């Protein structure tokens, strides 16, 4: 799931990069910062997905933190009129967090 999220965020980062190059920007520094943040999030999700696939116990906590970060993002999307996207984003964050905390994951990572 984390690697799938990484691909989605990577595509968003690519679109942001294209928008930075093609569209007139008012604040180039903010545009580049947002693009860099998206690329960094994609890289972190990809790396954490790989670490969890190799059953590295230290990857679970940062993965949960990244998933819980989807809650305020989704909430602000709902407040901004994008409830069709914010609601599923929040559900994704909670769902993946539940999977990361589930008994099979806990056993696979050797916490029991």
TrEMBL record:
Keywords: Membrane, Transmembrane, Transmembrane helix. The lineage of its organism: Bacteria, Bacillati, Actinomycetota, Actinomycetes, Micromonosporales. This is Uncharacterized protein. It comes from the Bacteria. The chain crosses the membrane at residues 32-52, 59-78, 84-102. The keyword Transmembrane helix applies.
């Amino acid at each position: 799931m984390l690697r799938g999220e990484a691909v989605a965020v990577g595509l968003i980062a690519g679109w942001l990069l294209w928008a930075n190059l093609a569209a007139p920007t008012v604040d180039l520094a903010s545009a580049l910062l947002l693009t860099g943040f998206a690329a960094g999030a994609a890289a972190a999700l990809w790396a954490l997905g790989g670490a969890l696939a190799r059953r590295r116990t230290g990857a679970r906590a940062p993965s949960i933190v990244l998933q819980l970060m989807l809650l305020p993002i989704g909430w602000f999307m709902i407040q901004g009129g994008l409830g069709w996207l914010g609601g599923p984003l929040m559900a994704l964050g909670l769902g993946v967090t539940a999977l990361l905390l589930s008994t099979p994951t806990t056993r696979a990572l050797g916490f029991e």
